[in-house]
């Protein structure tokens, strides 16, 4: 995914709760841990010098253990909390310098929140909940219901418009919550652990649907979770937090390949890496290169030198064309045949951006290495059973 401009960012945001803040700040600056600061001063460091940029139109996931400051960060974004120091900037505007009118406009039209605990109005039906934001803005009934219908349909709740929200399952209520947040056409959707209360199967459906909706509407989403699989599944960019500090920000692939420290490594080790890494991350360079036009002598020599019983043969553009096996090559040399005459064509190749989870069956069912190719079909490397297996631990 291309890197866009940022829509929302934090600059040196610190949030402290409780007494003795200047002493707490001194201790933090001297490298103390959040825990020690609390014990000594009674002051909680919810956020410490947080700098981050949220790219427009992407899903930015914040992950961390409980108490690491995720919800505080979300509350700073929509100004439910004021940072002790530092700035929150939305499209160039310092959120904490907005006057009442600007703030109302910001919360109504720019940034919307979806809560874990749904927060629906139980005396209203689905349509009434979804259209509420438009009602507050004074949109006429027929118009707001038409718009609400569109989002109700987008979250898969057609036919449920007149159901009371009390009768809905958790997953359906969260769909209502998402439709309600989208109806004002906000630029940013804040989602604080939106799926944590759902059972795993419903949760998986909701994750996938949110991805589809986001890709369709290109909204900026700030998605909070404490589940690394969810973070990697949803996130274009993932920010890992610990004790109020940002530990690392990167794509799932970058975090998997280069975890900044043991905390990140521990998180990532609990994740299913095969769903993040692609064959590009594990492919190896073929030790032996044989082309269609090579002599059989050369092909046999190459295989012997490299101790291989088979080799992927390429054309001059480095497109894989087939497998040559040592036994057949030796026979062919006796018979005076060329490589194209004895090549086994129809070999398996996988694209470089294939997830390992998708490549596993192809590679493990094959008795020889699989070619990895780019968009134009040019060979980039090979994957073997051994390279797949070593990526799993
Ligand atoms: N209103 C508050 N008063 C005092 N401490 C708070 C308040 N809100 C959050 N905290 C503390 O700030 C830290 C970060 O909390 P929070 O942002 O809710 O973390 P997370 O969402 O990652 O679990 C925690 O140590 C929490 O106890
Ligand atoms: Mg929280």
Your description of this structure?
- The strands form 4 sheets. The protein has a 6-stranded mixed beta sheet with strand order 6-7-8-3-9-10, with helices on both faces. Strands 2-1-4-5 form a 4-stranded antiparallel beta sheet, sandwiched between helices. Strands 11-12-13 form a 3-stranded mixed beta sheet.
- Helix 7 crosses helix 8.
- The chain has 2 domains: 6-276, 3-Layer(aba) Sandwich (Rossmann fold); 280-391, CBS-domain.
- 40% of the residues lie in helices and 23% in strands.
- The protein has helices at residues 21-29, 34-41, 70-77, 100-110, 126-130, 132-136, 141-154, 170-182, 200-217, 228-234, 252-257, 262-269, 279-282, 296-305, 326-335, 339-342, 356-365, 385-391, and strands at 6-17, 44-55, 59-63, 85-90, 93-94, 111-114, 188-192, 220-225, 237-242, 245-250, 290-291, 310-314, 320-325, 349-351, 370-373, 379-383.
- With 393 residues, the protein is α/β, with parallel strands linked by helices.
- The structure holds adenosine-5'-diphosphate and magnesium ion.
- Adenosine-5'-diphosphate is lined by residues 17, 44, 46, 64, 66-72.
- The site of magnesium ion has 2 residues, from helix 3.
């Amino acid at each position: 995914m291309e890197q866009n401009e940022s829509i929302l960012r934090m600059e040196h945001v610190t949030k402290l709760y409780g007494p003795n803040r200047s002493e707490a700040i001194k201790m933090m600056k001297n490298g103390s841990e959040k825990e020690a600061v609390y014990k000594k001063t009674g002051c909680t460091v919810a956020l410490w010098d947080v700098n981050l940029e949220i790219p427009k139109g992407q899903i930015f996931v914040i992950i961390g253990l409980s108490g690491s400051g995720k919800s505080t960060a979300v509350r700073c974004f929509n100004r439910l909390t004021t940072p002790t120091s530092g700035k929150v900037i939305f499209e160039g505007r310092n959120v904490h310098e907005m006057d009442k009118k600007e703030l109302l406009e910001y919360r109504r039209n720019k940034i919307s929140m979806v809560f874990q605990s749904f927060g629906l109005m139980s005396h209203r039906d689905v349509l009434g909940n979804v259209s509420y934001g438009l009602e507050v803005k004074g949109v006429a009934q027929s118009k707001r219901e038409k718009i609400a219908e569109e989002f109700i349909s987008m979250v898969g709740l057609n036919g449920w418009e007149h159901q009371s929200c009390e009768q809905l399952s958790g997953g359906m209520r969260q769909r209502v919550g998402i439709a309600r947040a989208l109806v004002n056409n906000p630029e940013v959707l804040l989602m604080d652990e939106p799926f944590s209360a759902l059972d795993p199967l419903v949760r998986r459906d909701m994750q996938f649907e949110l991805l589809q909706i986001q890709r369709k509407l290109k909204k900026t989403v700030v998605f909070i979770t404490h589940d690394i699989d969810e973070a990697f599944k949803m996130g274009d960019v993932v920010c890992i937090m610990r004790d109020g500090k940002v530990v690392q920000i990167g794509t799932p692939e970058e975090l998997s390949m280069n975890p900044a420290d043991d905390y990140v490594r521990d998180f990532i080790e609990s994740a299913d890496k095969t769903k993040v890494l692609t064959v590009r991350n594990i492919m190896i360079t073929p030790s032996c290169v044989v082309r269609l036009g090579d002599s059989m002598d050369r092909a046999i020599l190459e295989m012997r030198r490299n101790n291989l019983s088979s080799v992927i043969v390429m054309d001059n553009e480095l497109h894989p064309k087939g497998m040559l096996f040592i036994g057949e090559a030796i026979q062919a040399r006796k018979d005076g045949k060329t490589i194209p005459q004895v090549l086994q064509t129809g070999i398996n190749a996988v694209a470089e951006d294939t997830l390992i989870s998708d490549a596993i069956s192809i590679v493990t069912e094959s008795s020889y290495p699989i070619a990895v190719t780019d968009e134009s079909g040019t060979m980039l490397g090979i994957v073997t059973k051994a390279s797949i297996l070593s990526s799993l631990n």
